[in-house]
TrEMBL record:
CDD domains in the cross-refs: GH43_AXH_like
UniProt KW keywords: Carbohydrate metabolism, Glycosidase, Hydrolase, Polysaccharide degradation, Signal, Xylan degradation
Pfam families from the UniProt entry: BD-FAE, DLH, Glyco_hydro_43
Superkingdom in the source lineage: Bacteria
Protein name: Family 43 glycosylhydrolase
Domain Dienelactone hydrolase stretches: 193-259
Length: 577
């Protein structure tokens, strides 16, 4: 998606922004007595009234009893950012106007006729008019496409009210016996119920429904779809497992709120009403922030930062400590990026345990590298395995195409090591090297496809640490990270877990060593785990690390960074915190 789209989504979906979202214009489309009914318009960026863009008119839910156009402002904002003219229509309800469900349908039809009549004045393409809605509003939208009667007295019925497509969020579209509202519309349900009025003229339809919906249950939805298909018409039914009625509302389930918009987007793309790529769940959860002081990420707990520069932008991949964590039971990985080290974007979770068929727990310290336009994400799980996933973007989403671990110590502890965790990858002169291991530093070459080992796993030798004990000196604990500066390779790692442990380093003239211990990189941090990375960005060097300053809890850590300098002899000037 274009940056401008993502920015608009951030404005919309941060905090309580939906309530602050305002339409571009509000137009009265119908007057009944002293009641004025309005259309709340959202226009695409740079929209001109002489354009010919598709439009979607959305009708709010509320059981024909209440509700208002604001209910669909979120969907309007998103779909307008994708190029649709969008409108959320007001209609009469029992609470506001003392009306029956029949008047709701009359108003829906009036709204669609008004759109057809005024299309040219609002830059709308008459051949790409869509109706949509949720619950009772979904019924109203479906009725404009299927029901023949319930027209407002005196209205010009020669003007069509039938949309070219329907996008329905758990619509109560069957009002017969066993369907929603039957007791209220029993005398006229056969004329009122969209299901009972389906015909060969019904437009392509998308129905999005939770499997636990009791008002328009999955069996009724499947019957609706089957009847549409009998008539030779398209009806896509998406069932969302475990979701109840109104599941698409943000206050019910944010992820489902976003997912239904994405699925509606894909449906409209398939009809040729939209072009390009829809948003991803990740783009909806992006957060913009600035570094004020360390820790620089404060809106969630993060650890194990792996920093890389791709296309003149710095990306930091992290593990994610849960807000209530009492152990390292991490579930997903995040990525943050910046072009100036001040302004940052949290791109959301790039991958989670749910995306891995062969792993169930412990999404620990990751790394990511780029090769030939592809991004390879390496991640340790279950303390025994390392996987690799691929994306076309440094912000993912990443896909486990291999479908199995790249590294697995099952049955080969002596060869792989007792705890193959903390992978990091360096590409030097076309050869990729992966470093990993807890207490036992390991290295292995990767083939050019980055998903196959090239040769055996080898011990990574570090000289000068033979007599050092855990938490002191050059003892190797975990978190290997290798980078090159000038003609020297630097191995950054943690020397243990405790009040005296910190990040230390060793150097070598070869990427596979042996390395020679040099000393500490930085003072001891507050957390008893240390994990970091060092990267050059725009002429300066930075060390990324984590502490527990925000939480005072070793299982809820936060990432930091500081500028790092080197002496003339190439040694790292120890960072004083």
């Amino acid at each position: 998606m274009k940056n401008i789209v993502i920015i608009s989504l951030l404005i919309l979906f941060t905090g309580n922004a939906i309530a602050q979202t305002k339409p571009d214009t509000i137009v009265v489309y119908k007057t009944v007595g002293d009641v004025e009914l309005s259309m709340h318009f959202f226009f695409p960026e740079n929209h001109q009234m002489n354009d010919a863009k598709p439009v979607i008119v959305l009708f709010h839910g509320g059981g024909w009893n209440g509700g208002g156009p604001e209910h669909f402002y979120g969907q309007c904002e998103y779909l307008s950012s994708r190029g649709l003219v969008t409108a959320s229509a007001q209609y009469r309800t029992k609470k506001s106007n003392g009306t029956t469900p029949a008047e709701c349908v009359k108003d829906g039809k009036s709204a669609m006729r008004w759109i057809y009549t005024n299309a040219s004045a609002y830059g709308i393409d008459k051949d790409r008019i869509v109706a949509g809605g949720g619950s009772a509003g979904g019924h109203v939208a479906a009725a404009t496409a299927t029901v023949k009667g319930f027209n407002e007295a005196g209205e010009d019925t020669s003007v069509s009210c039938q949309p070219k497509a329907l996008v329905l969020f758990n619509p109560v579209a069957n009002n017969g016996p066993g369907g929603y509202g039957y007791d209220r519309v029993k005398p006229y349900y056969k004329e009122f119920s969209p299901y009972h009025n389906l015909s060969e003229t019904a437009p392509p339809t998308l129905i999005m429904l939770g499997t636990k919906d009791k008002l328009f249950n999955p069996e009724l939805a499947k019957a609706y779809q089957a009847r549409m298909e009998e008539l030779g018409q398209r009806c896509d039914l998406i069932l969302y497992d475990g979701q109840e009625h109104a599941f698409f509302n943000k206050d019910k389930n944010e992820e489902m709120h976003y997912q239904t918009m994405i699925d509606a987007d894909k449906f409209l793309i398939s009809l040729g009403f939209l072009a390009g790529e829809p948003a991803t769940l990740q783009s909806f959860t992006e957060v913009e922030f600035q570094k004020e002081e360390n820790p620089f990420v404060k809106h969630l707990y993060t650890a194990d930062p792996s920093a890389h520069v791709f296309n003149d932008r710095l990306y930091v991949y992290t593990s994610h400590d849960e807000d209530t964590a009492t152990y390292f039971n991490m579930l997903d990985w995040h990525v943050f990026s910046s072009e100036n080290m001040k302004d940052w974007t949290d791109h959301g979770a790039v991958m989670s345990l749910d995306d891995i068929a062969w792993a169930d727990k412990w999404a620990w310290a990751p790394d990511c590298v780029e090769r030939d336009g592809k991004y390879y994400f390496y991640y340790p799980v279950e303390r025994t395995k390392i996987g690799v996933a691929i994306s076309n973007s440094p912000t993912g989403p990443f896909v486990d195409q291999l479908g199995k671990p790249l590294i697995d110590n099952t049955g080969q502890l002596e060869h792989i090591g007792i705890e193959p965790i903390d992978p990091s990858v360096l590409i030097e002169k076309g050869q990729a090297y992966m470093y990993f291991g807890c207490r036992e530093p390991k290295v292995v070459k990767l083939k050019k496809n980055m998903m196959t080992l090239k040769g055996d796993v080898q011990d990574l030798k570090i000289k000068g640490i033979e007599n050092d004990k855990e938490h002191f000196g050059g003892f190797y604990g975990e978190a290997p990270w290798v980078f090159k500066r000038r003609d020297t390779f630097y191995l950054l790692y943690s020397n243990g877990w405790g009040k005296t442990s910190t990040l230390v380093y060793a150097t070598s003239k070869k990427p596979m060593g042996p390395f020679t211990f040099q000393g500490e990189v930085m003072d001891v941090v507050s957390s008893w785990t240390s994990h970091g990375s060092i990267v050059e960005f725009k002429g300066k060097w930075y060390v990324f690390y984590h502490n527990m300053d925000l939480s005072n809890n070793n299982y809820r850590r936060s990432i930091c960074f500081d500028e790092l300098t080197f002496g003339e002899n190439g040694k790292i000037n120890k960072l004083k915190l």
